[in-house]
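re: ur question from the group chat, yeah i did fold both. here u go
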Amino acid sequence: MAVKVTFTFDETTVTRLSEAAERLSKPKSAVVREAIHDFHERIGRLSERERRRMLQVFDELVPKIPARPKSAVERELRELRRARRSGGRASMRGKSV
């Protein structure tokens, strides 16, 4: 079922719509429907610019991760777990791990 809807576009958008419809040999309404469908499919996905930015941040942060032996990480995790059970790290001061 088709529903008639009225929109107001600026001149640049109308020109682009007309050019797209002419190039694709489709009615303007079909171009708008396809554009809305494509836009809807991209909702929630990263744009190429966003993806590149996140990869850049990842590449900047990964080298900053300190390299520590597994035993040191496990020791710290044990300390954190113990501290959480007993009310926080402040209560762990002076106790050996």
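okk and heres the other one u asked abt
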Amino acid sequence: MRKADRLDVIRGGDCTVLGYGVSNRPLVEWLLSHGAGSVTVRDKRSSEEMERSGDAARLAALGAALICGEDYLRGLAGDIIFRSPGIRPDLPEINEAVAKGAVLSSEMELFLALTEARIIAISGSDGKTTTTTLTSLMLAEACKRRGYGRVYLGGNIGTPLLPFAEDMTPDDYAVVELSSFQLMTMGSGAGITRGALTNITPNHLNWHTDMAEYVAAKTHLLLGETLPEAAILNARDENTRHIGEAVASPVIWFTGERGLPAGYLPDTADPSRGDRAVYERAGTLVIVAPHENGVTETPVLDTDRIRIPGRHNVENFMTAIALTWGYAEPLDVAAVADSFMGVPHRLELVREIPRDGGSIRFYNSSIDSSPTRTVAALNAMAEMNAKLGRRAPIVLCGGQDKHIPFDPLAEGLCRMASRVVVTGEARDQIMDALHACPDYRPAALPVTVIPDYREAMEAACLMAQDGDTVLLSPACTSFDAFKNFEERGEVFRGIVRGLKI
């Protein structure tokens, strides 16, 4: 829906907001201050919970109506319905309301329709937040050097951007991380300037009906009536390669493979479309562009300037470089690489305890909520420990199952862990995957099962001896024991910082 059309529906209209969480709190205030005839918030929490949290009083003070409890969707109606990302858009009550003429939208879709800033959007299964952060920092360096333009960072990364939409100008950048939940009803006419898909591997299959729906949601970022000026895609990922074949926009491909010949473009590249590639050659990240007489190759960044560990983080830099190409210069990229130490809860070194012969290191990678993320963390740890001469890590994993196979996790643990502590609701599934793995040898990889998460954290830390590394990399969501992955990581931090060993 176009900006004018959307505003016409809001002004004087009946607006319904589903879920009163992080993104919908400022949405309610925005709707009421922009002429909505009425705003009704529907939330699954009980009236007691809404009162106890102060949300009921807050909504009453704003002048919004509240419907809460298990039947919060009963009689759903309104001219426009804004859903929280975690609420499926195809619930029967939503379908019925839409059939009667309601428009289904979200805070993010409203923001995208209103802002005049260039929209740089990132999605994918792994690496979204780090890539989004790197992209915003590179653009901020460029704006600072030029002396104009601002960078806004938000979306699924935690900051709702709607309150800033009317302050943004065409000189500004809105760098947004988008989840598959947000993309389910997005796409056509979204107005993305550039979009990147880091990769697409099985994820959130406890929410999506199947892998096909998950992939389809991700494609909404790049396929629609309004196409981005560039699509950034992973040349090594089968799903993103297929998307690259379908998009009309020029593609900037990136690949984590090393040592490719100069002028390399993936087989899926279409030079006539204006495709480019980012890859590493001889320790330098380069941009390759085809022309009628061959290719041009522009060096951007020496990889030894990247301070965050892991091959996956080199790929995150490649993606950010592609997203900012033409907006930021290599010196802007280098300034970020020289100073960026990573995002909290992502292979974060919490503490190093000196010992007589060396030290014990503790890493918090609580964000690793899928097997592929844990395997990436293990690969990064293996590369780092090999350089430092340290042993393979003691790995703490487990949590709530996302209905994703644990086979890749089992294979990674057998290859790259010295010991494993398994915890959480999914502990039996992880153990089944380990026992089914051909490489699993109990004597070579001791496994301890501790159901309680905090006890498991403490036990893993106390197992460490001089030269060991303890890695929290759950491969599961946190919701069986914690409010979110941040809380899980904070609890681990607290335990590590309180150690007396």
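fwiw on the second one: Residues 183 and 217 are 5 Å apart (CA to CA). The chain has three domains: 3-105, 109-339, 348-497. idk if thats what u expected
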